[in-house]
Each structure stands twice: as structure tokens, then as C-alpha cells.
Amino acid sequence: MKFCTVINCMDGRVQLPVINYLLKRFNVDYVDSITEPGPILILAEQKNKTLIDSILARVNVSIEKHSSVGIAVVGHYDCAGNPVSKDVQLQQLQKAVQFLREKYDVPIISLWVDENWQVEEISNHF
What we know:
With 126 residues, this protein is α/β, with parallel strands linked by helices.
């Protein structure tokens, strides 16, 4: 069994498109999902230590217990937990990925889910 990890918004509209994308992208059997409203804002700003610690503790379980082969961080259109423009979210994604790369030695990618619920990998834009 192979796993990857996703830090995703709790918004149900993005769950299945992201999971389906990641199963293929990382060639895994399962995706460990860590959800919060607007997680890229939390990771980019690093202001709420309680939420940061909670997210990292869950990532650690996925990495240590499931030997996760990679992490994806997701931003999306029409996010209620982070109601800012796509451009701002892309900047937040970049900061979130940089923060996670300081902590984990696995591939870390960022994804954008558009208004048609299509997933685009954007980490290569950084």
C-alpha cells in the first residue's frame, strides 16, 4: 500500500477531484486527507500556532505511519475560509510549500482547483 498526503480545504467540492488527481500523480493507493477551512492561509501566515501544530501533527502521522511519498497543498476557487483572489492564493501556496519543505524531505507540490473543479499543478511556477 502506498500513500500520499494532501492538505486541503474542507470544502467538499474539491475533495474528489483532488484525490483522483493525486492517486495518479503520486501513483498511490490512498490519499491521507488533512482538511481545514483555508489551510493555505494558515500555513502561509503561520500566525495560529495551534492550527499549525495540528496540521503538522497530522502530516507527521501520514509521513511516519503510512510512509507517505509526497505532500500536496491545495487552493481553490470560491474558498469560503480564504475568500481572496486566485493571485493571492497562489502567493499563499508558494509560502505554504516553502514552509513545508523546511520540515519534510518528500516531494511537496501545490494544486489549484478552478471554477470547473479541474485540478492544475502549479508548483512548477515557483
